[in-house]
Each structure stands twice: as structure tokens, then as C-alpha cells.
Specification:
The complex is a heterodimer of chains A (401) and B (408). Chain A has 401 residues and is α/β, with parallel strands linked by helices. Chain A contains eleven helices and eleven strands. In chain A, helix 3 packs parallel to helix 5. Chain B has 14 helices and 15 strands. In chain B, the strands form three sheets. In chain B, strands 1, 2, 5, 6, 7, 8, 9, 10, 11, 14 and 15 form an eleven-stranded mixed β-sheet that branches. Chain B has a two-stranded antiparallel ribbon with strand order 3-4. In chain B, strands 12-13 form a two-stranded antiparallel ribbon. In chain B, helix 3 packs across helix 7 and helix 11 packs across helix 12. Classes of the chains: A alpha/beta (401), B alpha/beta (408).
């Protein structure tokens, strides 16, 4: 009873694409907290993008370099000190992802201007993207079931941490946020999935403010997985980090601050890679075109593209082919080399790509005054593709330097 | 702002891969007959565990149900989701032509993702070292592949989203699919949940002291815990108008849903937050508490869950407790599939006119209150018009979906 093999599986006839859904209502990005291999905040990302590299390196926390595959360039978030925000008590129960997310959400809420911080906790929630949650904690917990005297001699206080929704749940407890709390999975698409889920929830009235983002921790387990599966693209380190964005439905900021950006369409689709990688490129191109139409942005008005597949060996060309199909090859948007600079961060890629766009737009050293819109694209090895369109609000805050 | 003028959304297809049978019809028939899906653990080596029962799917032959997803390339959770989704499509009578020409989404919930794949890698790490990890398995670990498998199996080109909101994830997925169709974002959605029986989940609940001595006995005076279980459940959602146009059989209308977060404790349920979730669901569905005829409970069979759940219902229903029962008495706790199985049963209850039983209850816990009707032991012929389905999770994630008779 063998299964149908990949090569002999029947093909699906694809008819013309269905009509595109109507224009979208924008959602405001009113805050952002980011941790990357360049450090904390947008300014270090702007510096790193300008320099072309994040200078820091090495594994995270107490891990010894010997736990990691030899020769793999791994980079953690430099100077991350969760105890400063979370205190020391109970810190060991939290996974590194829990810690990154709890600190980021605390800072993101705390940094909102006072007049914008009025939304009730019941109307405020968290939407996070992930792949499998804390790779380190999942690996250790499973290991214990094999190496302890009895298979259930696992650490009970570590059990919640092996679930994907651990970080979002921990952060909600810390901040008392009883609104929508969701965790979405999808590898490199996770960041866009989170943005899209949050958009949908805000516009359907399930919440008024959503801390939305994606995080990935550096662990020996994740490093060995990359090492054994063919790994990162040449010159791209394995990184960690992520970002959380404060999203609000547009009428929520009437009295509040000017948004950092507006999230327009966020469309995702799928093409089975077994039917050929050109089909994945075409599906991504469709997604980008649809997202632009729904955002009422013309391709020539897109100044910046932040691609997401540059860290995964062999996938950059799949993504680039789509961008070339949509945008003028000669005068297309400037590409931000996010993974080359900040490292491959799996499910956090999309969030860091958006952070990179925001970092660029507030970097006074760059002549970006005329840049009005950007696209963030993602491609997953399973065939998921996606595109978010962000616009710079007119009369945006003046550059910080 | 909420768009209250959205499209009406109906369920026209059901699919199930369960310990009570493969296929929604077999599953529902077994459930109504009071059968149990719980038996000895076979999916992993249970040596050394004191509790050795689980609700496992024992007769699932992937190639009999999957045309494009091959078991060599996909984990067991993905196979469950893809098989259940294919059954839902066939049940709904939707052809390939339609699937490839309308805007679609697939969204499935899970607690442990591809847990068996992770476990195989964990065992390799321990026995052979990290430098011997199987690259083929590494490519299968991402939980997002569960919904991707549905797209591959059915040739869908739309969004494939996996919800990781643990044991409430099935309801999150139904709710998200509902929002996508109601708002006009997509015209057809497959939603549900999937999880596979695995060693580390069993170990975790074992260590917490949350496993039942034999079978789970939700609402029983001497209930003592859950039984870990597995399976996949799928619902096909489409706009009412489209269903009517093609003359589809309509199981139920999705009236709405609500979500809340306890923000209280990672593993203990919290009644005020669950009550608020129920109220949000009622508001979203445009119903009043007195409209609800039956509640398909989260009903895990732990001391804490069942008393907390009843307290929350009492709060949200102004003191009244509608008939409420737990299908986990027969299935065990299927984790990320649990709320999806609940949603499936809710639709069947509305369509066939029955209330599923809390099959294993012996003496209903008097501490829950004298008025609790948990449909003890045998299912009841009764035609509810509005059914409420509960899903709560570690991390404090709660989601409640509301289904209505299409004539309601």
C-alpha cells in the first residue's frame, strides 16, 4: 500500500484566478519593539543595513559554542537582559522565546504615548507567529522522555513552554491583556500570517489593539536542524529575534500619535512546490499584484521591497523571479538585504523585514523622503507565499537623525 | 469597525479521522451509539508509563484517503488534516473545478503540531547524536505544514494558516474561516484541527497528574483527569447563498464566535475569562443566552476544568445551565482537534437532532449544582436550534463558536 509518489501524482488543472477581493481598510502601526542580531530597536537595524552587516555574533545565553554545529555562523540578540524588565523570579521557567516576547510586548505597550495607551485590556490582545514555538525547550523536554529514569520524569514547569502559544500566553499574563490572544504557525510565512490574522480580527471587531509580531530563538536544536538540512544561503548567519508591532483599527488613533506606517493589504497564497518552483514564483507574483491592487498602490509607487527568502539556500531566486514579474526590472523597488544583515530567523523573518522598512524610513541619513510604500514578501518551502503592503503616512514623523 | 452586514456562512461538508471511525458519518454514528475510542497506546512505546491508555486512530491507511499527500513526506497530523479535509469536500459535493476556481482558505488548529516528527528527531539526537539528524524529517517539523497539506491534497491555491492556540485551536480556526467568508475575503474555507498521539504530550500530562486512571469521566463526582488522544476533523464553510445556489445539504449556520485570554495562569482555567468569552460569542452571533439549547463542552474530565466551566456557564447564562455534555468521554482529549470535533458534532446535532452523551459519567458531581444536565450515559433525541461549542487551552486561550439550525 505505498502512497502515490511525488512524480506520479495527478496534476490539478488551474483555471484563471478568481476575481480579486475589494480594496482593504488600512490598519495603523502605532508602535514597534524589535530585538535583532543588531540589538534592540530600529536604529541598530538602520545602522546594520547601512553597514551591510550586524557586527555581533555568537550563541545565546549560557550555551557553549561547542553545543552548536562546527562552522555554522550563529548570532544571538546582543545585550538582551530579560531580568531588567521581567525580574529574576521565575525567569528560568520561561523559554527564551517567552522572554523575548514578554519583554518586547511590555516595552511596546509601555512606549505608547499616554493618550494612545487608553484602550482597555479586554480590547487589547496579542497575535504571534512561530514555527514550532521554543525549539530549545521542545528539544530538551522530548530528550527527557528518553533519558530520564522513567519517561514521564519531565520537568512539569517546562510543560507549558513546549506549546506554540506559550509566549503569547505568558506575555498576556504579564500585561493583563484579556483580549484576543492567538498564535499562528507557518515557518517563514508566520510573520505575514500574524499580520493578516490581526488585520482580520481588528476589522471584524474582535479587538481594538493587537500587539502583533513574530519571534524565533537561537538554540542548538534549531542550529543543528539547519546544519543537517542543507542550511542557510552562503554568507547568511543563523540569527534570532523578532518584532512586535502595535496595530490598531484606523479610527482608534483619532486622539493619538501619528502612526509609524499603515498596513494595507496582506495577502497569502499557496502553490505546491512539487508542481515546480516557477509555479511558486507565479503564485507569489499573483499575491503581490493582488495586494497592490487591493491597497490601491501602483507598482511604480513601491519604493522598497523587503524579501524574505534570501536566507534559505536556493529560494532567493524563486522570490526574486516574482518581484521581477511584478516590478520593472530596470527601475524596481530597492531590495533590503534583511536576512543577509540580520541573519536567517525562520518564523521571525517577516516581522524583521517590516522592522527593516520602518528602520529605513526613520533613518535621516538615507534620502527616503519620497518613498511612500513598501512590500514585504515571504516564501515558504511548503509552498506558502505572501505579500504585505505598507504605506508611509503622509506627513510622517521627521527622521530621528 | 465590525461589519455586521457580512455574508451568512454555512457548513456543508464534514470530515473526520477519529478513534471512533474514519469519516464523519461513521464517527457520529459511533458517538451516538455510545462507543468508546479509548484503548491501549500503540503510537509510541508506552513502557515505563503508569497510564497506558489513549484515544488513538487505529485503522487509518493514508493511501486509502489521500491522493496527493504521501505519508513519506508528511507527518501524521498533516495526514489527518488532509484526509479529513478531503472527506469534507467529498461530503459537500464540491468538485475540483470549483476548488481551483474560487478563492479558498484552509485553516487548521493544532496543539503539538507534527509531534511525532519532533519525537523521532529527539530520539535520533539521543541515540545517534545531533550530527545524524534525518534531513527528511527536519523538513516536516513545521506546524504550518498541517494546513499546507490540505492545500496540497486538494490543489488549493489560497491561504493555508495553522493556528497554534493549543486545545482551543479548532474553534479559532472555525472562527477565522467564518470571518474570512463573512467579509468576502474568500468564498470557500476548510477548517478544523489535527493532532497526533505522542510520547511527550502524554509524559507532560502524566507528570502534571492530569491523566485519568482509566477513562475520562467528565462531570462525574469522581472524575480524575484526561486521556490523551488524536485525530483530525474538518468542516467545509461557504456562503449561504452559494450553498443554496448549488443545492447543497446544509448542516448548520455558523452564527458567530468569540475569543478571550485568561491572562491569569498558564495551565489553570479561569471562570471569569471563560464567561467573558461566552458573552463575546453571543454578542458576535447576535444571540441571547436563552437562545442556546445545548453546549458541547470543553469537558476534559479534570476536576478543575469541569467545575470552572460550569461556573463560567452559570455566570454567562444568568444562573441557568443549558444541557451540556462532553464528547471527550468517548474520544479522549484530541488536543488541537478537540474543538474541531466539537464543532463537527455541534453541526451533526443540529442536523440530525440529537444531544451527544457524557458517556462515562456514573454519578453527576453534585458540587456542580443540582440542575446540571450533562446528558448522562446515552445520547438523547432532541432537536436543538442553537448550539454552543467550547474550546479552552493552556496559555489561557479561549474560543467559543455558535452554530444554528439553518431555519433558526
Amino acid at each position: 500500500m505505498s502512497a502515490v509518489s511525488t512524480t506520479s501524482r495527478p496534476t490539478v488543472s488551474r483555471t484563471a484566478a478568481a476575481p480579486a477581493p475589494p480594496p482593504v481598510t488600512p490598519v495603523d502601526v502605532v508602535g514597534c519593539t524589535v530585538f535583532s542580531t543588531a540589538g534592540q530597536g530600529l536604529d541598530p537595524i538602520a545602522d546594520a543595513l547601512l553597514r551591510g552587516t550586524a557586527a555581533e555574533g555568537g550563541p545565546a545565553g549560557e550555551a557553549a559554542a561547542g553545543d552548536y554545529p562546527p562552522g555554522l555562523d550563529v548570532r544571538s540578540v546582543p545585550g538582551f537582559s530579560p531580568a531588567d524588565t521581567l525580574g529574576r523570579k521565575g525567569l528560568g521557567r520561561l523559554t527564551r522565546t517567552d522572554q523575548l516576547v514578554s519583554v518586547a510586548c511590555s516595552l511596546a505597550l509601555g512606549e505608547l504615548p499616554e493618550q494612545a495607551a487608553q484602550t482597555e485590556p479586554a480590547d487589547t490582545g496579542i497575535v504571534l507567529g512561530t514555527s514550532v514555538g521554543s525549539t530549545g525547550r521542545v528539544g530538551e523536554f522530548i530528550r527527557d522522555t528518553f533519558v530520564q529514569e522513567l519517561p514521564y520524569f519531565v520537568n512539569p514547569s517546562h510543560f507549558p513552554g513546549i506549546l506554540m502559544n506559550s509566549a503569547a500566553g505568558r506575555a498576556a499574563i504579564r500585561l493583563g491583556l484579556t483580549g484576543v490572544n492567538s498564535t499562528v504557525s507557518g515557518g517563514p510565512l508566520a510573520g505575514l500570517h500574524a499580520l493578516r490574522f490581526a488585520r482580520t480580527a481588528l476589522l471584524a471587531g474582535h479587538a481594538r489593539r493587537l500587539l502583533t509580531g513574530a519571534f524565533e530563538e537561537l538554540s542548538a536544536q534549531r542550529a543543528w536542524a539547519w546544519h543537517r538540512s542543507g542550511g542557510t544561503a552562503a554568507g547568511v548567519p543563523l540569527g534570532e529575534g523578532g518584532a512586535v508591532f502595535v496595530l490598531q483599527a484606523p479610527d482608534e488613533h483619532a486622539e493619538g500619535p501619528r502612526p509609524l506606517a499603515r498596513l494595507l493589504a496582506c495577502d497569502v497564497g499557496f502553490a505546491d512546490p512539487a508542481d515546480g518552483l516557477p509555479g511558486v514564483s507565479r503564485r507569489l507574483a499573483d499575491c503581490v499584484r493582488t495586494a497592490l491592487v487591493r491597497s490601491e498602490i501602483a507598482p511604480e509607487d513601491v519604493a522598497v521591497a523587503a524579501p524574505g527568502a534570501s536566507g534559505r539556500r536556493g529560494w532567493a531566486r524563486v522570490e526574486e523571479a516574482a518581484l521581477r514579474e511584478v516590478f520593472s526590472p530596470a527601475q524596481g523597488p530597492r531590495r533590503l538585504a534583511v536576512q543577509q544583515v540580520l541573519g536567517e530567523t525562520d518564523s521571525a523573518n517577516g516581522a524583521l523585514q517590516l522592522a527593516a522598512v520602518l528602520a529605513r524610513w526613520q533613518d535621516g541619513r538615507q534620502d527616503t523622503g519620497r518613498e511612500r510604500a513598501a512590500v514585504i514578501t515571504s516564501v515558504g518551502p511548503d509552498g506558502s507565499v505572501g505579500c504585505a503592503v505598507v504605506a508611509r503616512p503622509s506627513g510622517a514623523p521627521s527622521p530621528r537623525r | 469597525m465590525p461589519d455586521r452586514d457580512g455574508r451568512r456562512v454555512v457548513v456543508t461538508g464534514l470530515g473526520a479521522v477519529s478513534s471512533l471511525g474514519i469519516g464523519a458519518r461513521q464517527f457520529i454514528a459511533a458517538l451516538r451509539a455510545g462507543r468508546s475510542g479509548i484503548g491501549p497506546i500503540g503510537q509510541f512505546d508506552a513502557t515505563g508509563f503508569e497510564h497506558v491508555l489513549a484515544g488513538e486512530v487505529r485503522d487509518f491507511t493514508p493511501s486509502a484517503h489521500l491522493h496527493r499527500v504521501s505519508p513519506e513526506e508528511w507527518g501524521r497530523s498533516s495526514q489527518f488534516a488532509a484526509a479529513a479535509a478531503r472527506m469534507a469536500v467529498e461530503d459537500a459535493g464540491v468538485g475540483e473545478q470549483t476548488l481551483s476556481s474560487v478563492r479558498t482558505a484552509s485553516c487548521f488548529g493544532t496543539t503539538n503540531g507534527e509531534s511525532q516528527v519532533l519525537e523521532d528527531l529527539g530520539e535520533q539526537w539521543v541515540s545517534q547524536g545531533p550530527d545524524r539528524l534525518d534531513a527528511r524529517l527536519i523538513g516536516q517539523v513545521d506546524a504550518g505544514r498541517i494546513s499546507a497539506a490540505v492545500n496540497v491534497e486538494l490543489g488549493l491555491s489560497g491561504e493555508a494558516l495553522t493556528l497554534g492556540t493549543a486545545c482551543a485551536a479548532g474553534n479559532y480556526s472555525v472562527g477565522y474561516a467564518y470571518d474570512l467568508i463573512r467579509s468576502g475575503e474568500v468564498d470557500l474555507a476548510l477548517c478544523g484541527g489535527a493532532d497526533a498521539s505522542n510520547r511527550h504530550t502524554h509524559a507532560g500530562f502524566h507528570r502534571l497528574g492530569a491523566l485519568a486512571a482509566d477513562v475520562p469521566r467528565p462531570f462525574d463526582e469522581h472524575r480524575d483527569g484526561i486521556v490523551t488522544a488524536e485525530g483530525g476533523a474538518a468542516l467545509l464553510l461557504e456562503p449561504l447563498e452559494a450553498a443554496l445556489e448549488r443545492g447543497a445539504r446544509i448542516y448548520a449556520e455558523v452564527l458567530g464566535y468569540g475569543m478571550s485570554c485568561d491572562a491569569h495562569h498558564m495551565t489553570n482555567p479561569h471562570a471569569p475569562s471563560i464567561a467573558e468569552c461566552i458573552r463575546r460569542a453571543h454578542r458576535n452571533a447576535g444571540i441571547k443566552p436563552e437562545d442556546v439549547d445545548y453546549i458541547c463542552a470543553h469537558g476534559t474530565g479534570t476536576e478543575a476544568n469541569d467545575s470552572t466551566e460550569i461556573a463560567a456557564v452559570r455566570d454567562a447564562f444568568d444562573g441557568r445551565v443549558p444541557p451540556i455534555s462532553s464528547i471527550k468521554s468517548a474520544l479522549g482529549h484530541t488536543m488541537g482537534a478537540a474543538a474541531a470535533f466539537g464543532a463537527l458534532v455541534s453541526c451533526a446535532a443540529l442536523h440530525e437532532g440529537f444531544l451527544p452523551a457524557s458517556t462515562t459519567v456514573r454519578t453527576v458531581d453534585p458540587a456542580l449544582g443540582p440542575d446540571v444536565d450533562c446528558v448522562p450515559r446515552t445520547s438523547r433525541a432532541q432537536r436543538p436550534r442553537v448550539v454552543e461549542n467550547h474550546g479552552f487551552a493552556f496559555g489561557g486561550n479561549n474560543a467559543v463558536t455558535i452554530f444554528g439550525d439553518i431555519a433558526a
